[in-house]
Amino acid sequence: MKKTLLAMSVALAFMSCSKQPTFVEAYITTADKTMTMAKDSILLQTNNDTIKHNLITLDASVKYQEMDGFGAAITGSSCYNLLKMTPENRTKLLKDTFDPVDGVGYSYIRISIACSDFSLEDYTYCDKPGIENFEMHELDKRDLFPILKEILAINPNIKIMASPWTPPKWMKVDNLKDRKPFDSWTSGQLNPDYYQDYATYFVKYLQEMQKEGFNIESITIQNEPLNRGNSASLYMTWQEQRDFIKTALGPAFEKNGIKTKILVYDHNYDYDVNKPENADQGQYPLRIYEDAEAAKYIDGAAYHAYGGDKSELLKIHEARPDKNLYFTEMSIGLWGDGYDFGKDLMWNMREVCIGTINNFNKAVIMWNFMLDDKHAPYRPGGCDICLGAIDIDSSDYATMTFNSHYYTMAHLSKVIKPGARRIKADGNTSSKVYYSAFENPDGSFSVVLLNEEDTAQKISVAEGTNVFTHEVPAKSVVSYIWKKSI
Q: pLDDT digit string (tens) for 104-125?
């Protein structure tokens, strides 16, 4: 009996002294869709010096940009479709998407200031001439506000970016030389005579949104300023944005105590310089930053990936490391060879997600959150073959298809928390393995990894004295998060 008691005491003492094992959470999505955010647990072990191949080593002492968040555009069309769902189904979807603990934790969304090409109609908040006639539109009150309030109830820390597609038509002219009135939602330029009124328009918008409980984290000056052809649009050169910010918007924000971040550009990497009228628009943000009076009001620049290459982000960062970078739009659709889940999962994660982040981008937002099976609602002249991150069946507003964009954002937002810092990561992996690593505000580490190889890859990740090894499936995306073993 004494021997048994002694053995039990020794065992209990050993158990109390031994460390509890630490596990890495892994989330896996494969190109063939056999796994979508499938969860796995991997034992975190003491570093093994015998691991020589397919080893990624993290160095948290070398830190890069702070991450703001990841998500999708909550367009008027998205809101319309969401509100067609039953309240129970909608709440479940929004919790699965935005809940930072029990869901995937989308953390940054983009909305339009008035209409976009995915709205139910064309409108601004001041369609009657005279800035004194400013008023929030009924469609926003009916559709956008309820959805934003439901999202904020789930994730009160969600960041919101807002972008205009067009100013009120009475502020538009056909060109800056003749300044003839331009009564069209599409194209035109902002009349410099109305710079102050348009600055007031932004101020009133932000104040009204604040009254509704919506704190707008950032605004862009104009969606796709070098694209005249969108269903609602405005042509706006870097010279115009510079002058508008310097003489009107920046001072108006300062006077009214508005802290919302001002972002310039919001268009393609290549500045559409193949069009003759854009020949002098290359490196659009840098040209604006050259003016110190304008630059002092500007947080950074936003980009889309419909033209050019992500390497442009690194060039902009290296020229102005004091200014931030944001990725604000990429759509999927039926153009070219048509949409393919696996191909876009690979491309989007390589080029837009890991690719832009490793070039100093701090937020990624897809276009757009939800459309129906007919790619609708969309505006005449807008995209009629676009897909949403989620497509919902309009026959029942319950059956949903989750597309590649939903999962690429989920892989980022699930493990990279707002305020995380990208850290140094080096490895000797295959050239078709891409990754980025982070330290979260709570001290946890995360890695997002893409394996584009046709075969599974046994990959190890080491940080300090900790290491884990995982067999990454062929053609897959994997996100990892773990706390340092003590």
A: 999 999 999 999 999 999 999 9
